[in-house]
Amino acid sequence: MLALVRKTAVAFVAGLTLPATTGGAFAHGTERGLVMLLPTGHYMVGSALAVAMSFAVLTCLPDGWFQRISGARLRLFSIPQLTPFWPSMVSFAVMAVLLAAGFAGTGDPLANPLPLFVWTVWWVGLTSLQFFTGNLWTHLNPWSGPCTLVQRVLGRREPLLRLPEGLGYLPAIIVFALFAWFELIYSAPEDPGRLARVVLAYWVLGFAGVLVFGERDWFERAEPFAIFFRLVGACSPLQRHQKEDGRTCLKLRFPGSGVIDLPVLPISGILFVLLTLSTVSFDGFARTFLWLGTVGVNPLEFPGRSALVELNTLGLFTMFAMLATVFLGCVAAGCALIRRGDTILQAAGRLIYSIVPISLVFHMAHYLTAFMVNGQYAALVLNDPFGTGANLLGLDGVHVTTSFLTNIHSVSALWTLQTALIVCGHVVGIVAAHLIARRLFDGARQIALSQVFLAALMVFYTAFGLWLLSTPSIG
To answer: Closest Cα to residue 31, out of 405, 392, 305?
Structure first.
C-alpha cells in the first residue's frame, strides 16, 4: 500500500511539473479521433506568460483603477421578480419524467434522456450557462417548490432543527466527493437504471434536508450544487439587483467582481472550492498516457474503468490533498513574506474566491467536446422524448456527427477556444485575487508581495490545464 501511495504521488508530481518543461512542439489529441502536430509548447508558454503579465500589470496600475473596475456597472433593463415556487415545480416535474425514463426506458445511455440531461444538459450546460446569466439554481432546484407545498399543507414554515454551525461545509464536501466519485470513477455512471436510483436517493436526501433544516441552512452549507452554482453566479458579468418596487434590475459588471466582497469562508468552505477544481483536474489527468503508464496500464489496451476503481479513487483524493496543500501553502507564504502571518486563515478564506473562475473554465474547457457530441444526442431525444415518432424540433432524419473532431481546421478552432477559456479564467482569477488583497492588506507593496506565490500557482495551473488538453490520452 505504501508503495502504491508513493507511486501515485510520483505520478502527480510528474503531471504537475511536466507542463513547465516545454519544448518546441507537443503532440495534441482532440477527442482522440485526430492527432495533430501543433506547437502546443508555445501555446502553454505564451498563455502562462499572458497570465503572469496580467499580474505584473496589476501591480503597476493606479489605485483608482481598481475602484473603477470593481465598482463599474452598466444598467441594462429591469424584469419582474419571479418567485422560485413555480420554476422549481416545473423542474421537479421534469425530473420525475426523467426518472421514469431512467427506470422504465431503454438501457442505451445515448438514447435514454436521463443520462443525457443529467451529465450533458444539467452538469455541463447549466453550469456553464450560469456564468453568463448569474445563479439560476435558486429557482430551478427541484426542492424549493415541493417543500413549500408540503409546508403549506402542514401549516409549518420554521425548520425543525438548525444545521450545526460546527459542521461548516462538511456535508457539502462529503456529498460532492461522492458525486465526483460516481461520475469519474464508478464503472457505469451513465447506466439509466443505476443513475435513476442515485438521482432519486439524492432528491429524497435534499427534500428531507430542506424540511428538517430549512432552505437557508441546507442550501447555504449542505447542498453542494447550490453552493457551487451560487459561487459561479457571483463570477458572472450579469448582476441582479432587487429594486424597491419588486422588480429585478440587470446590470453588467467586470467578470469576477461579484466575489470580492463575499464573506470569509471557513476552512471547510475553502476545501469545498478546491474539491471542485481538483475533481475536474483529475478527470483530465486520469485519461492521460502518463497516469495510465504510471499505474501499469497500457493505454492502447485500456481495460475499462472497473479495473481502475481503487487506483483512481486514490488518485482523485491525492490530487485534492495536494491542491489544498499547495493553495494554503501559497497563501501562508504570501502572508509570511509581508509579515502578516496572523491573517493566513482570513486571507485564505477570502482569496479562495479567486479559484472559482479557474474551476469554472476548467469545467467548460474539459467538457466542451463531450458537450458538442452528447448535446446532439440530447437534442434528438428531446425531438422524440417517448420514442413515438414525434418530431417536436423538426430533427427527423438528422444524425449525430463527430466530423468536427476529425478535421484539422475545426480541431484547431476547438483547441484555440479551450486555450482562450483557460487563459481568460486565470486572468479573471488574478484580477479577483488582487481586488480581494486590496481589502486585506495596506499599501501597494504588501498587496503585490502577498500575491506572488498565489499568482505563480495560477500561472502554473494555466500551463497544467493546457497540457491536460494537449497531451496524448484515451478518449
So the answer is: 405
| Identity of the amino acid at 216 | R
- Grid coordinates in use for 50? 499572458
For residue 475, how many other CB atoms are within 10 A of its CB?
A: 12
Rounded to the nearest 10 degrees, the angle between the axes of helix 344-351 and helix 309-337 is 120
CB contact at 8 A, 432 and 353: yes
pLDDT in tens, 4-55: 444 444 443 444 343 333 333 333 333 444 444 456 666 677 777 878 888 7
Residue the block writes with cell 488583497: 437
- Measure Cα distances from 268 to 171, 215, 234, 258, 433 in Å: 10, 20, 19, 21, 20
Number of other residues whose CB lies within 10 A of the CB of residue 77: 9
Q: pLDDT tens for residues 119-177?
A: 999 999 999 999 999 999 999 999 999 999 999 988 877 888 999 999 999 999 999 99
Strands 238-242 and 247-252: antiparallel
Long-range contacts of 212-220 (CB under 8 A, 24+ apart): 212/159, 212/160, 212/161, 213/159, 213/160, 213/161, 213/162, 213/163, 214/158, 214/159, 215/143, 215/144, 215/147, 217/159, 217/162, 217/163, 218/163, 219/138, 219/141
CB–CB of 274/456 below 8 Å?
A: no
Extents of the domains making up the chain: 1-72+279-299+309-475, 74-253
Does the CA dihedral 407-366-135-78 come out positive or negative? negative
Burial class (CB in 10 A: 0-12, 13-18, 19+), 346: middle
229: CB partners within 8 A, 6+ apart: 126, 127, 130, 135, 136, 137
Sequence-separated (6 or more) residues with CB below 8 Å from residue 64: none
The CA distance from 286 to 317, in Å, is 12
Sequence-distant (6+) residues with CB within 8 A of 224 are: 172, 173, 175, 176, 179, 272
Neighbours of 361 (CB within 10 A): 27
Distance in angstroms (rounded) separating the CA atoms of residues 403 and 182: 30
pTM: 0.88
Q: Report the alpha-carbon distance of residue 142 to residue 382 in Å, rounded.
A: 20
Distance between CA atoms of residues 247 and 114, nearest Å: 35
**Number of helices (H), then strands (E), in the chain:** 21, 5
